[in-house]
Write a structure and sequence with these properties.
three-stranded antiparallel beta sheet, 8% strand, 266 residues, mainly alpha
Length: 266
């Protein structure tokens, strides 16, 4: 694991050394390793600084972040703090995502990606929401995403490119989810409300409706994705083949006749 002096850590995190010292005083960072008068920070500290930056960007105050991190590390109100720190909420993922978060040490995370877990890639994964920091461990949001991205890296695609694609897919997926939510809100929810008991639609009925919608939404999306991949991959392969094929012969040089001048003399 890499270690940094205070100035280097601050530069990598995009803050000043004064801000770094302030975070330490506010107990936002664990103590560094001391070697004489030199303080050594590691990648855990850098990851924590990126988490703090992410929470600040989401509107949390420093005082609130201190409470959140303290609650998370001590296990109090774990569901709420996990949501705020970017971890999956079992209450939400049980409806559609069906993903299993996985805990990893820094060494295990590095093994998955064959040494490509750089500071920049770690920051990108934190920013997208793929991983979050829990003490001295990372929590990846999805075992399936972790395995798939690891296989892509093993096949030769740089981790930075995989993460950039993941960021783009996240944007596209949000748009697709909006389509289904619009259908639900516009057509299904009003009908359920009309058929509900006089006291209104209860949570159990709503949960049942969402569970019925889940396999249908996934079925439509997977079918459309498969068809789209067929179209795009086929077009790409045809273009690649066309570029490799030799061009048509010219009139001056017909096949098997030598040059145009020699053919005319014969």
């Amino acid at each position: 694991m890499r270690e940094f002096r205070a100035a280097e850590l601050a530069e990598l995190a995009g803050i000043t050394t004064r801000t770094l010292r302030f975070y330490r005083e506010r107990k936002l960072l664990p103590p560094p390793r001391r070697e004489g008068r030199i303080a050594w920070y590691d990648e855990h500290h850098l990851a924590r600084l990126h988490t703090i930056a992410g929470l600040l960007n989401r509107g949390h105050t420093l005082g609130g972040i201190v409470d959140l991190l303290g609650a998370f590390e001590s296990g109090r109100d774990s569901q709420r703090t996990a949501e705020l720190l970017g971890l999956e909420s079992s209450m939400i993922t049980s409806l559609f995502a069906e993903e299993t978060p996985i805990r990893l040490t820094p060494e295990e995370l590095a093994d998955y990606y064959q040494g490509e877990v750089t500071v920049e890639n770690l920051a990108a994964a934190l920013d997208i929401g793929y991983i979050a920091v829990d003490g001295d461990e990372f929590v990846h949001v999805s075992r399936r995403l972790l395995d798939a991205s690891s296989e892509l890296v093993k096949k030769g695609i740089p981790l930075a490119a995989v993460l950039a694609s993941g960021r783009e897919l996240r944007k596209q997926s949000e748009g697709i989810a909006d389509v289904f939510v619009h259908l639900f809100r516009t057509h299904l929810l009003p009908k359920e409300q009309a058929d509900a008991a006089p006291e209104g639609l209860d949570a159990e009925c709503l949960d049942d409706l969402l569970r019925q919608l889940r396999p249908l939404a996934k079925q439509v999306f997977e079918a459309e994705l498969g068809l789209a991949l067929d179209r795009r991959v086929r077009a790409e392969v045809e273009q690649w083949i066309a570029q490799r094929e030799p061009g048509p012969p010219t009139t001056a040089d017909p096949p098997g006749t030598g040059t145009g001048t020699a053919a005319a003399d014969g």
